[in-house]
Amino acid sequence: xxxxxxxxxxxxxxxxxxxxxxxxxxxxxxxxxxxxxxxxxxxxxxxxxxxxxxxxxxxxxxxxxxxxxxxxxxxxxxxxxxxxxxxxxxxxxxxxxxxxxxxxxxxxxxxxxxxxxxxxxxxxxxxxxxxxxxxxxxxxxxxxxxxxxxxxxxxxxxxxxxxxxxxxxxxxxxxxxxxxxxxxxxxxxxxxxxxxxxxxxxxxxxxxxxxxxxxxxxxxxxxxxxxxxxxxxxxxxxxxxxxxxxxxxxxx
Length: 252
Prior knowledge:
By secondary structure, this protein is α/β, with parallel strands linked by helices. The chain has a single domain (36-76, 89-251), classed as LmbE-like (Rossmann fold), CATH 3.40.50. The protein has 9 helices and 7 strands. It has helices at residues 15-18, 30-33, 49-63, 88-106, 129-137, 156-172, 206-216, 220-223, 237-242, and strands spanning 40-44, 68-74, 114-120, 145-149, 175-179, 199-203, 247-251. A 5-stranded parallel sheet has the order 3-2-1-4-5, sandwiched between helices. The protein has a two-stranded antiparallel ribbon with strand order 6-7. Strand 4, helix 6 (156-172) and strand 5 form a beta-alpha-beta unit. The protein starts with 14 loop residues before the first helix and ends with a strand.
């Protein structure tokens, strides 16, 4: 992605900060998104994706007493190839610890939270869609409302996990919603690629946004890259800036 335009704040003119359609997305409330008594299932390709995609929604659902199920497909240990500071061995231990801290910062009930770690290999999911569908399906049941990364989000792991989650939800009789992550950071000229007619906006109050931003910063290993070996931050400043928007968007 090489955006060539800048908005008035000096940030790259990407879809998240320039598309006029954002102002016209219909607003939906938590009760309409996840009916009373329904269980919400958030499926994250990598540690941190559950906060970036649904950090606000998770807080709202928790405050309403909804049962929550989180699935972390990989441990994210391949995020720094060639790094001595963040070797795969270290990250395989450290990134789950970051997730625990992030979920604690969201205020989720860690003592009762249903959280499953899949153990699939990071950055190697493209050929494992059928295995992923089977794995995810073990944890779904009729009536669940499932959220995962958009099936056209860009990164291969995001897309295959989204497809597998969709297939598993259909087989289980659950409702599925895509949540874009990196698509919002496409150049503004690609805004026609977004299925705006499927988009719905969930509003977040100031405190919910603050906790979500605080939780995102728990991923210390992802905040700084290693320029010497060509590794950029996995959570760059522009993404952290978007995390402070007073809403989250899901696709129906």
